[in-house]
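Reply to dn_fold:

You asked what the input looked like. This is it:
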Amino acid sequence: MPSVFALFAFVLLVVGGYGYINQPAQEPPWNQVIPGFAFSPYQAGQSPIDNIEPKLEDINRDLSLLAGKTLAIRTYTVAGIFGEIPALAKAHNINVALGAWLSPDLQANEKELERLLSVAHSPPYNVVRLIVGNEALLREDLNLKQMTAYLDQVRAETDIPVSTAEPWHVWLKNPELAEHVDYLAVHLLPFWEGIALDDAVNFSINTYKRLQLAFPDKPIVVTEVGWPSNGRSIKQADASQANQAKFLRRFIQRAEQEDIVFYVMEAFDQPWKSDIEGSVGGHWGVFDSFREAKFEPDRPIIAIPQWKLLAAASIVVALMMTFLLLIDSKTLRDSGRTFLIFNAFVISSLIIYVIYDFTLQYHTWASVAISVFLLLGVVGVFVIVMSEAHEWAEAMWYSSRRRLLTLPKRGEAETALAKGHQPFVSIHVPAYEEPPEMLIDTLNALARLDYPNFEVIVVDNNTKDETTWRPVQAHCQQLDQQSGKRFRFFHVSPLSGYKAGALNYALERTCPQAEVVAVIDADYKVLPHWLKDLAPEFEKPEIAIVQAPQDYRDGVDSAFKSVCYAEYKGFFHLGMVTRNERNAIIQHGTMTMVRRSVLEQVGCWGISTITEDTELGLRIFEQGHEAVYIDQSYGHGLIPDTFTDYKKQRHRWAYGAMQILREHAGQLLGFKQSKLTAGQRYHFVSGWLPWIADGINLVFTLLAVVWSGLMLFDPLAFNAPPLLISVVPIMFFAFKITKLFTLYLVQVKASFRTAMAATLAGLSLSYAIGRATLSGLFVGRKIPFIRTPKMASRMAVLHAVNAARDESVLAFVLLCAVGLIYFRLGFDSKENLAWCLVLISQSLPFVAAFVVSLLSAAPTRAVVHNEIGVKQS
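and this is what came back:
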């Protein structure tokens, strides 16, 4: 019932929020005929850049739309078909302020001016003004001397008023220019100057009066005044349809009061201008490129006229998401369900608005391809956020555990073991190039197990140095004599298949009575009661895997190992616990126990991937067997000693996961027959989504660098991405960090410092994971199994820096891009600022890698202590 109330509340919030933002705004009506429109008749798909010109019927149709709405139009060139505009305009009772386009091409300029005079002095004689050049001084296509010569030349050959069109500040900067014109043709475009909408009309009128004071003897005609309906912001100026309508309706009222002659910029949207003016350039028209009016001239203005449709779409998508998220939520508390509903409504609203904003843009094939890629990326991010939100809710707001295992107390364990079944356990220890003293400690711990039925098989595969494996062999022989023939040692070289090959070799030599195969890594020191507590679980015939978490005994040895230890905790004490709820744990190759008959039935340890443990677990699930995860440590290994080894370990895990995803895609997606449940499919796919996200994020980072370079090279053609596109990765980054902190602080009971350490370590692996997932998904070649070295010498500082070389370079490039954008383009645009925040957030994982790598070389004491469960044995 509370979930129903939450749904109802969020529905009201969406509708109320849209309604509040879109309250009708009363503005002065625009119901009078205005002095003029700036007129470019290019249709959608036409462009002077590509030499695709409008046809006579296109121009005539456009003029018919303006008939009765304006007294005149202002043109920009007389070349080609544009010289026919005055004759066409006459039929609609429209006068013309005829323009000539001037450029650095002096020969073309002479032809243009010759045609200008010819058209102006030919029937039907409806040219009321001549405009020689448009912003030619602003663009620096011509200098002042050249421009005044052209003006004098035209004025000498006509009695029609002559001027050149320039922004207001160009006139003030070049007062002598006014001596060569009959009137001032002025552009007043407060948007380009970053003036806030509410101040824009006053700014325009005050600027007009400033020009009157500066040039009292010259009439002033505002040949461009307007506001864009879409595109990037500049300082306080925001482009939107509502702002365009408000500005024009306010300005027209004031201009009529002040008796100002003006031409609204412009009649029709010109998408081709986006190539030279950025995203704003194509959106200045009162009509869009399909000749549809953007707003009602005399009705209240609504920011998003389609807001009811958007609200309804957001609610429908949110309800669908909610249904999927709550389809199996019987163990969630009401607070957890409310959290998921909240996320569903936020994300659905963002998705719908991003799609809506996409429809407001003008697109080329290239921009469509880029936009579709960005939209797919946004949707992908939201899918990952929803899966992470689901894990967050199930880890934090559960009412009970479905598959909670209650282990017997110490005294009860002995009694239960004596009365119950005591399966024979064959413990396999694969080893390769392991320090002998470390492996001997591992074997000594196994010798102390207080369980009656077990054996230990050590397989040293391919170690070349006899001084490494001979001491272990001798110690095994000694333990074998002491324990009653329980320890066996095999040195095999050559042996293919890496760790899986060694485990299969051990399986072939396992005692015939063994019912359970257990695996531990060569650095693990198990606790004496490991088998006593966990072996009885195999009395249940449905259980094929019993898994205990990996844990570590050297997490307090250094600051580096402290942050690594903190990061490991998240998976083993949060992720694995929630996966166990749906019998979907990740089997990892140490502290694991497998029913031997099942292991042999599914084909033993696989050699097709480098994560043979996880792949085996998935094969076992595909056959319908069950696993149980005990969230209690029974053994402690060693953390990698260097950042290089830490990255290699995670690279192997991520690469292997992608190999498994490729190999078992049919079963995971339901295309191939298996006994996987929906919950198991969900956890295996969604559990690897964050790693896939790191791969996609790496591609995004590289594209962001390229795009930033294009912005710096050509700021007009390449603007910062739309604000919403920038907001999404920032929100995603913030969501991940918040989730991690919350779960560590609340569920793991860690301190703030520990949560910081876990965050730092997790971020530092993003690049390694990203590379691994991309390689595993799209390259697919098998890479060698890379052993994670233990008890290695500490890295020197220079080696530590080199270990994070790629990450350091990327961080440097991203932060340099931020600096260059600031100094070259500034943060006048909200989009520029948001994009720089994206670049900074993208750089943080790479900075974290550099910091963690330096920590691996530092001889300082640990920053994280026993508060999260580091144990010594």
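The chain has four domains: 2-17+308-396, 30-277, 410-654, 690-868.
Hope that clears it up.
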